[in-house]
Amino acid sequence: MERVHRLAGALTAAGAGPGTRIGVMDWDSHRYLEAYFAIPMIGAVIMTVNIRLSPEQIAYTIDHADVEILLINKEFFAVCHGIREKLPKVKQYICLADDGVPDDGGYGEKYAGEYEALLAAAPAKFEFPDFDENTIATTFYTTGTTGNPKGVYFSHRQIVLHTLMLMSTIMMAGAGQRISREDSYMPLTPMFHVHAWGFPFVAVAMGLKQVYAGRFLPPVVLKLLATEQITISHCVPTIMHMILTAPEAANIDLKGWKVIIGGSALPRAMAQAALARGIDIYSGYGMSETCPVLTLAQIKLDDIPEPGTGSAKELDIRTSAGMPAMLIDLSIVDDHMNHLPHDGVATGEIVARSPALTQGYSKNPEASETLWKGGWLHTGDIGAIDANGYVHVLDRSKDVIKTGGEWISSLGLEDIILTNPAISECAVIGVEDSRWGERPIAIVVLKPGAAASEDDIKGMIRSRSETGELSRYAVPDHVVFAESLEKTSVGKLDKKRMRVLYGTVKAA
Fold it and tell me: For this structure, is 182 an active site residue?
């Protein structure tokens, strides 16, 4: 807490005050956690810079957010130097030096100093001001694949409510998935992305031990899992895949590690592989605009008395989006905003209401109005809600494949293809077709040394269609074998980019 007070004093001395936008450009670290608190608590706004965007997009987001002070790890000096002319609003740069060696970066009169030196010179006690709870606390930028990133913002009230909502929801889980002050927490979601899903706020509120891995490297993460006895983390499927397949994972006991998967659907094959290693893995669902958690796929012991066996029913629950968290009102609607029954059959767009959801996009009233059309926040996801309250996300509205008069879920096809033991990763996309409107193609990455043919993969889908489980239109026209899959800056599958790359692929 003293370091938070010192950082508040150092920032104030650098000219920060109520409403000042302060950017943070760093790896996951204790410094980031300190900034999560010190910046909003002085009445300023923390802007978390997505370090994985292109330099042009980084410049756009920092400038669009009106950042005046930038805390920057010196590993990113080269990127920043290339865009400095596009950052006229930045008045002060503060160096974050992992090696403890200050570097002025050539910033001249705009260089405020090195982080640790500034904290050492600041008072150990800072008098934080009172202000309205609706004051903006945080802002960051979505990682959509169309146009410039959009600025999302949250107030102090919304951050507090989301923290209480998330904390109470996860504490209501069964014994395996529940967290307590005895847990040890390490985020594997970048801290620049939606407040690391809000979990650092929960960890501080509950007094959990916290470990920050810096730049994501599977060997480092696996070592910390073992030496620090980490029990709760969260990440996207891509990160979990990298951890499970890392050579170092073979000799590390992962039993008792609770991991929430979000950002993309949790594949059944991945859930099975994680459960086999003793990982209590399950899904969470939300988006940047929702702060972000909307649902968690918690296991009810009445339904699964002995979780961890990987039964079909258990996998259905763990890979679903889950049940709405506290204070979350979810519904599914048709194109006319008519609410559809929660019977597990009716499908429509998932919409949400909650006091923790963003009010809109910064400087973008048109997009804000679209987001909140009809008084509900529109997720853009197509799904169903069953009678027990579990949400099942079928696909993004832009990723559903419309072919032969039917809608085909790309997520459903990926789940089936990934059951092939030779396949490491998979993405299914729809490409234009003059006869059927769209046709599915599958892009797959094989495991090292493994083999699978196009006929093998098509046969898996065809066998499901012959039983009536899938439409006959679901069999992909073509299978592309790739060395890797295109991903966004936060590790999600970039299907827009894939549609550009593979849109002209024709069946053999």
Answer: no
Residue 407 a catalytic site member: yes
CATH topology of domain 155-395: Rossmann fold (3.40.50)
Task: Quick: pLDDT tens for 222-236.
Answer: 999 999 999 999 999
Chosen CATH of 2-131 out of 3.30.460.10, 3.20.20.70, 3.40.50.980, 3.30.1120.10? 3.40.50.980
Tokens at 398, concatenated: 């832009």
Which residues on neighbouring strands pair with residue 430, listed in sequence order? 440
Confirm whether 309 is a catalytic residue: no
The DSSP string of 317-380 is: HHTS-BEEPTT-EEEEE-TT-PBPP-SSS--EEEEEE-TTS---BTT-HHHHHHHTGGGSEEEE
pLDDT, tens digit, 9 for 90 and up, residues 59-72: 999 999 999 999 99
Choose the catalytic residue: 89, 125, 402, 506: 402
**Which CATH code, of 3.90.76.10, 3.40.640.10, 1.10.10.10, 3.30.300.30, is assigned to 401-502?**
3.30.300.30
Query: Model-level pTM?
Result: 0.88
